[in-house]
Specification:
The complex is a heterodimer of chains A (117) and B (105). By secondary structure, chain A is mainly β. Chain A contains no helices and eleven strands. In chain A, the strands form two sheets. In chain A, strands 2, 4, 5, 6, 9, 10 and 11 form a seven-stranded mixed sheet that branches. A four-stranded antiparallel sheet of chain A has the order 1-3-8-7, with no helix packed on it. Helix content of chain B is 0%, strand content 51%. Chain B is built from no helices and eleven strands. Chain B is mainly β. Classes of the chains: A mainly beta (117), B mainly beta (105). At the A-B interface, β5 and β10 of A face β5 and β10 of B.
Chain lengths: 117, 105
């Protein structure tokens, strides 16, 4: 069955970096885009951007340009999100989600990133 | 495109017919999906392209609408339907509504 497995929770200090992974299984990784979505605890969802898993080309939402990098390890069916120079407002649950004709049909369980001094 | 969901909180009884609303700031041309999120879980796709039921989702869930106005209807509310429901447009970029929290009365 289709699964997206994300890396575990992270506790970081302001200014540090974090890398979150999302390993896909149960389908051909390069046939579907991978999106990233942020959810601040108790709040709504915000689309961060997506990566074309066939070409490796990333696209970032306006609020996520500069400190955010999407990458792939296609041989391992894994998408990664790296956030540098972490700020308190980056504290959130971050989901990867498979893109199917522009909507998201399967989601990972989320990776909680906590930024605190 | 901004999406406004109403109500933000809805209390209903088991067996009730429940309708949730999602209004776009402009025409989203039926490129609208609905997700269910239970506490501590990832969102689950219920409906895509306004009214297409995702595989494995019970038939008591249905979607409708056009233009700027869309709805999610649960024909007979079940206890396991307690969750927050988000609409989401993918016509122009990708944006989510603020959510409707559905609780049992």
């Amino acid at each position: 069955q289709i699964q997206l497995v994300q890396s575990g929770p992270e506790l970081k200090k302001p200014g540090e970096s974090v890398k979150i992974s999302c390993k896909a299984s149960g389908y051909t990784f390069t046939d579907y885009a991978m999106h990233w979505v942020k959810q601040v605890p108790g709040k709504g969802l915000k689309w961060m951007g997506w990566i074309n898993t066939y070409t490796g080309k990333p696209t970032y939402a306006d609020d996520f340009k500069g400190r955010f990098v999407f990458s792939l390890e296609a041989s391992a069916s894994t998408a990664n999100l790296q956030i540098s120079n972490l700020k308190n407002e980056d504290t959130a649950n971050v989901f990867c989600a498979r893109g199917n004709s522009r909507y998201f049909d399967f989601w990972g369980p989320g990776t909680m990133v906590t930024v605190s001094s | 495109i901004q999406l406004t969901q109403s109500p933000s909180l809805l209390s209903a009884s088991v067996g009730d017919r429940v309708t949730l609303s999602c209004k776009g700031s402009q025409n989203i041309n039926n490129y609208l999906a609905w997700y269910q999120q239970k506490l501590g879980e990832a969102p689950k796709l219920l409906i895509y392209n306004t009214n297409s039921l995702q595989a494995g989702i019970p038939s008591r869930f249905s979607g409708g609408g056009s233009g700027t106005d869309y709805t999610l209807t649960i024909s007979s509310l079940q206890p396991e339907d307690v969750a927050t429901y988000f609409c989401y447009q993918y016509y122009n970029g990708w944006t989510f509504g603020g959510g409707t929290k559905l609780e049992l009365k």
